[in-house]
Design goal:
The protein has about 500 residues and is α+β, with helices and mostly antiparallel strands. About 55% of the residues lie in helices and about 10% in strands. The strands form four sheets. The protein has a five-stranded mixed beta sheet, with helices on both faces. Strands 4-12-9 form a three-stranded antiparallel beta sheet. Helix 10 (about 175-190) packs antiparallel against helix 14 (about 275-310) and helix 15 crosses helix 21 (about 485-495). The chain has 21 helices and twelve strands. The protein is globular and about 110 Å long. It has one domain (about 45-495): Cytochrome p450, CATH 1.10.630.
Length: about 500
């Protein structure tokens, strides 16, 4: 009996000890969390589980998104939130964003949402960090070097002409569809060579990329019919098409093919014992990411450039005069050259202003690898840091009348580089986009042939939105007419 009482007493004591231990741990954790919360910037985590994701999405699907501006006005240039399932600190100021991007690999690593990584793959360049990223970047920089780009100007121009030559026949065209086709054809041939020219395989890939884009920043709900599930299925079809209809085919002698070249490079770079299947998965993710990033940015910029120059006759006229002068200097003959591209100075300003107003990437995601003190606030280790590019590009401190399309504002940079306004369209720091020059060259060549060949007129009213990427409600329907020869003559006289 005494033994039973003793054992019962010991059980009670053990229960009390365990309970006290758990209470102390919870108290300590809550106390620590309270200390962290005091050091966080202001803000709101929104709804349980969903956070402020739906509110952000709803705002971005309008013509004038206000989510970031309202939060910035209420809480300051940095604020806490919960977006895409992640606790995060959002920063809206260009100087702070540049600092975060410059500390890639130090206090921060890339940290895109789960849906993004699942759709593009864990080994896509946008998800890699550390030595894996450094190795991949070396290959990217070499593949997109200026010397190689100079050699491929004729290929880019030929692809642009093949696309534009059909516009006048169609009459009213969807600029979104045409620019998506054009941009995809350019990057596909740049990466995979002549085996991926226009045709059913190309069309199938491009259409699947439309679906994939819709699911990149969707809520990661893997149920039939959701954007996320559709994107995963599109990814599987893209990879199957790449391997069965492209990679398995022999490439012509001298034809470039970064799929094979990258796999050979990774085989040399990877640790001993890396399996061929893992190499293939890394290569698939790499090419998938490049095809997505390489055409989505350029297509979106072309789309909005057309809209902005149509809406601004003064811009259209100056742009046309610049390109007419280039044609006159060539005596109406010969293809465009690298020097021609470098002389398209006003075109560069048009592109820069387009990317400022309608950058395809509204947010850049990083993850803190340690507790970071920034502007008097704490970014806890493991939290996301969301760089609001769009908000920085609309900052009235740097841009007078920030919502107006004014390419001339960027021409002052040449005269006074010290006052160069912030442009984060291609990222920054160690992850600055290595394909930025390719995108700009492609856009300049597109603008050259567009304004020298055609007159454009909008077919119907369009409503703009910005999620998941900038777009128009009807794809920007435009009536295309071949240019009046009389205007060419007047421009020639002006040129001389």
């Amino acid at each position: 009996m005494d033994t039973t009482l003793v054992l019962h007493g010991l059980e009670i004591v053990a229960f009390i000890c365990v309970s006290l231990t758990l209470i102390m741990q919870l108290w300590s954790r809550n106390n620590e969390q309270a200390k962290i919360n005091k050091r966080l910037p202001g803000g709101s985590f929104g709804l349980p589980l969903l956070g402020e994701t739906l509110k952000y999405m709803a705002s971005m699907k309008t013509s004038m998104p206000t989510f970031m501006a309202e939060h910035r006005q209420k809480y300051g240039e940095m604020f806490k939130s919960k977006l895409m399932g992640a606790f995060c600190i959002v920063t809206t100021k260009s100087d702070t964003i540049k600092w975060v991007l410059a500390h890639e690999g130090k206090q921060f690593v890339t940290g895109y949402p789960k849906s993004f990584r699942k759709v593009l793959g864990e080994y896509t360049a946008l998800s890699l960090h550390g030595e894996q990223w450094k190795s991949t970047r070396r290959f990217l920089v070499n593949s997109l070097r200026v010397e190689l780009l100079k050699e491929r100007i004729p290929m880019i121009e030929q692809t642009v002409l093949e696309n534009l030559n059909s516009w006048a026949i169609k009459g009213c065209v969807s600029i979104r569809e045409e620019t998506k086709t054009l941009a995809f054809n350019v990057v596909a041939q740049y990466l995979l060579g002549s085996r991926l020219k226009s045709g059913p395989v190309n069309d199938s890939l491009r259409n699947d990329f439309y679906v994939l884009t819709e699911g990149l920043f969707a809520l990661p709900i893997n149920f039939p019919g959701t954007n996320f599930r559709n994107a995963l299925e599109a990814r599987a079809r893209i990879l199957k098409t790449l391997e069965e209809d492209i990679v398995s085919k022999p490439r012509p002698a001298g034809d470039e093919d970064q799929y094979v070249d990258y796999m050979d490079y990774m085989r040399k770079e990877n640790l001993p014992g890396t399996t061929d299947e893992l190499l293939r998965e890394k290569t698939r993710c790499h090419i998938l990411g490049l095809l997505f990033a390489g055409h989505e940015t350029a297509a979106s910029a072309m789309l909005f450039a057309v809209k902005y120059i149509m809406d601004n006759p003064r811009v259209w006229n100056e742009l046309r005069a610049e390109h007419d002068n280039i044609q006159v200097s060539k005596f109406e003959g010969g293809n465009l050259t690298w020097d021609d591209y470098k002389n398209m100075r006003f075109s560069q300003s048009v592109i820069t202003e387009t990317l400022r107003l309608a950058n395809p990437v509204a947010l850049l995601w990083r993850e803190a690898t340690e507790d970071v003190q920034l502007n008097g606030s704490l970014i806890p280790k493991g939290w996301k840091t969301v760089c609001a590019i769009r908000e920085a590009h609309h900052d009235p401190e740097f841009f007078d009348h920030p919502h107006e399309f004014n390419p001339w504002r960027h021409q002052h940079e040449v005269l006074n580089p010290a006052k160069k306004p912030p442009l984060l369209a291609f990222g920054g720091g160690p992850r600055y986009c290595p394909g930025a020059e390719l995108a700009r060259a492609e856009l300049c060549i597109f603008l050259h042939h567009l304004v020298t060949k055609f007159d454009l007129k909008a077919c119907e009213t369009e409503i703009v939105s910005f999620f998941p990427v900038p777009m128009f409600s009807n794809g920007l329907q435009v009536r295309v007419q071949e240019r009046d020869p009389a205007t060419k003559c007047s421009q020639k006289i002006m040129a001389y």
